[in-house]
Amino acid sequence: MTEILTRAVEVTRRYGDVLALDGVSLDVRQGELVGLLGPNGAGKSTLINLLVGLRRPSSGRVELFGGSPADPVRRRGIGVTPQETGLPPTLRVGEVVDFVSAHYPRSADRGALLERFALSGLDRRQVGGLSGGQKRRLAVALAFVGNPRLVFLDEPTTGLDVEARRALWDAIRHFHADGGTVVLTSHYLEEIEALAERVVVIGQGRVLADDTTAAVRDMAGIRRVTLVCDSLPELPGVLSTEHDGSRTHLLTADADALVRDLVRADVPFSGLEIRPTSLEEAFLVITARAPQAA
Question: How would DSSP label each residue in 80-106?
């Protein structure tokens, strides 16, 4: 059986009266690329902080490589990019990479690392002189300095343009293809859909869904019906309607019934297409169904 690299067992975390996590259990196995999804305040960052040993659970158990995440030796096997980083502005890029590298017994080659994250030629540039996107790419690159087995990336592409985001995707895919394990949070659902093999949806501090990307999409039980028509009457079972030029997109829980209703209503239409819901649509449905925390 594939090795479990990190685990949370019935974990609860409170901040005063605020219940951030409520009985969360999660296993991450060697070679997985797991996407954590959830609205703001759902508990994603709190869960990552527990798994990497930056916080302790109020109750429950957290393991990293079979032991405590607080153990420095075990933490050498991980890389982390938090949501926000404060790199010293007067240090040069090369100095920052070398400083972090010194904490690991087996660090990555500086030149190869900077090239992988599109930072070549910036070794002597002060961090304070980098653009916002360059600073973010450096922060992500630092997660890979120690040749980790497991990487936690919390909103890694925030603030990056489309080209830089896709370049970073390629670097993550390369790491994963070489056997690396990734836990990734993102506000960009297309990012999770493009990268993750497994999706964990968190809401109200609980795990609401945990399965493959395709299975989570299907979990919502929603289908998207797309067609071309001049106008539509009010139809039963339509959850939402969007117009995109001449095409109309309808979300429904029963696509067959909707098509029958269109025919019975004598609606002239063409270009009919029925497909599963997107991950974004499924995410909205799943989180909307979540019970409120007590």
Answer: EE-S-----TTSBHHHHHHHHHTTSSS
- The model's pLDDT over 41-83, given as tens digits with 9 standing for 90+, comes to 888 999 999 999 999 999 999 999 999 999 999 999 999 998 8
Compute the distance between CA of residue 149 and CA of residue 169 in angstroms, rounded to an integer.
18
Residues of the chain with pLDDT under 50: 293-294
Cα angle: 270, vertex 275, 281; to 5 degrees: 120
Phi, psi (rounded to 5 degrees) for 26: -160, 135
Residue 62 near residue 11 (C-beta atoms within 8 A): yes
What total number of domains does the chain contain?
2
DSSP label at residue 179: T
How many beta carbons lie within 10 A of that of residue 61, not counting itself?
12
| Gyration radius from the chain CA atoms | 22
Global pTM value: 0.80
Domain check: are 106 and 247 in the same one? no
Do 19 and 92 belong together in one domain? yes
Give first-to-last CA distance, the chain, whole Å.
Answer: 38
Residues 6+ apart with CB under 8 A from 88: 96, 127
